[in-house]
Amino acid sequence: MFDRITLVRRQDVPWTARTATFLGGLGFGIALSCLLLVAAGVPTESLIDELVVQVFLSSDGLAQTVTAAAPLILVGLCSALATRVRFWNIGIEGQLWLGAIAAAAVGILDIGPEAIRVWLMMLAALAAGALWILPPLVLKSRFGVSETVLTLLLSNVGFLCVQHLLFGAWKDPNNGFPVSPQMGPAEQLARFGWGNVGMGTALALTIAVLAYVFIDRSRIGLQARAIGLNPTTARAAGLPVTATVALMVLLSGALAGLAGGVIVAGTEFRLTQYLGNNYTFSGITIGFLARTHPLGVIVAAFGVAGMFTAGSSLKVFYGLSDAVVVLIQGIVLMSLLSAQFFSTYRLSVARRGVA
Q1: Residues 99, 276: contact at Cβ < 8 Å?
Q2: In this structure, what CATH number is given to the domain that contains residue 299?
Q3: Would residue 315 count as lying in a domain?
Q4: What residues form DSSP beta bridges with 348?
Q5: Burial zone of 227 (CB within 10 Å; 0-12 exposed, 13-18 middle, 19+ buried)
Q6: Among 81, 238, 336, 355, which residue carries the largest CB count within 10 Å?
């Protein structure tokens, strides 16, 4: 029976159908997530209040959401840039960890003048993230080694580097926990007086707009799009495939590193062993929700940030774990993937005797 069933790629899918399919998959994922929360003990009548009102319509909740969105925008852009050229960056957390280490090093060692030290921290974070993704880039381009495996393994190495520092040379002598000493005012990004909202959010939004101009309005961005569609054809057409892929991948790693620097200097004000948790999955989810479009990344990042804000409230009042937030992200992502699959392919059943 199953030998008569084949998958046929749809040749022309109207944008209206693609949009409707995307919204349908998103709505289905959100509906399943709400059912999960109800099953976990959240009252049905409290869903709107917990997921919308307290997250986006209250001053404190919105400030927390906006603050959380800053590193999420950066890791979403990280995923989007790499995916544009078919480089599967599964090591976002590793690059973020190295960016956080580099930013903390500048602050802890008092490198540079105080007036510009926080910006030196951001530059160090950018450089560290790019350097951490360089080995997978070289090994893939020269020897065809899977970047998926390499970036994932380097995430574990990055986390072990953080633990080595926090349980050793950088452990705060005034604190019994494995954390670095707190940063001084010169190592903190300026805040606007509304919660922790500050220059980190402004920096992330500015980079997202610049990424939009770079990807959609520059020659390199057009080349990256052609390479993502078909690298073999792009190379045959004379496009600089290797150089373009290298640039996009290095920018991807740099943005992940900058996210670590923004967290250290914008919210945590110290290096901890928990500041990078779950950012790989969140970055991939944001990049997919945005269809790798930089401006879409902003919208998707605020949505995921709202999910984190709601998760914090649900954890306190209903005893839910952090795993529930990750599970909800997974449900939404799988719903969107399923919707995209059926919008791209159709089932064809051959008649008996024809298969």
Answers
A1: no
A2: 1.10.3470
A3: no
A4: 6
A5: buried
A6: 81
Nearest Cα neighbor of 162 from 274, 72, 259 is 274
Q: List Cβ neighbours of 255 (8 Å cut-off, separation of 6 or more).
A: 74, 75, 77, 78, 81, 126, 129, 207
Residues in the chain: 355
Look up residue 157 and give its amino acid: V
Paired residues of 194 in beta bridges: 197
- Phi then psi for 61, rounded to 5 degrees? -65, -40
**What are 302's two structure tokens?**
């605020």
Q: How far, in Å, CA of 193 to CA of 65, rounded?
A: 15
pLDDT value at 353 more than 80: no
How far is it, in rounded angstroms, from Cα 128 to Cα 253?
A: 8
Residues with Cβ within 8 Å of residue 51, at least 6 apart in sequence: 34, 306, 310
pLDDT tier, 1 (very low <50, low <70, confident <90, very high otherwise): low
Burial of 274 (0-12, 13-18, 19+ CB in 10 A): exposed
State pLDDT tens for residues 260-311: 999 999 999 999 998 888 899 899 989 988 888 999 999 999 988 988 888 8
Count of domains forming the chain: 2
pLDDT in tens, 206-216: 999 999 999 98
Residue whose pair of structure tokens reads 């952090």 in the numeric block: 322
Determine the Cα–Cα distance for residues 83 and 183; give it in Å rounded to an integer: 35
Q: Could you tell me if 191 and 110 lie in one domain?
A: yes
In this structure, which long-range contacts are made by residues 214-221, counting pairs with CB atoms below 8 Å and at least 24 apart in sequence? 215/81, 215/84, 215/294, 216/294, 220/244, 220/247
Residues 188-216: b if buried by 16+ CB within 10 A, e if exposed = bbebeeebbbbbbbebbbebbeebbebbe
Residue 319 pLDDT: 80
The identity of residue 280, as a single letter, is T
| pLDDT per residue as tens digits for the range 155-176 | 999 999 999 999 999 998 888 7
Whether residue 312 is contained in a domain is answered as no
- Strand residue runs (E) in the chain: 5-9, 191-194, 197-198, 345-349
Residue 335 has pLDDT above 60, yes or no: yes
What phi and psi values does residue 349 have, to the nearest 5 degrees? -110, 115
Q: Which range marks the domain in which residue 343 is found?
A: 1-40+320-355
Are 71 and 33 found together in one domain?
no
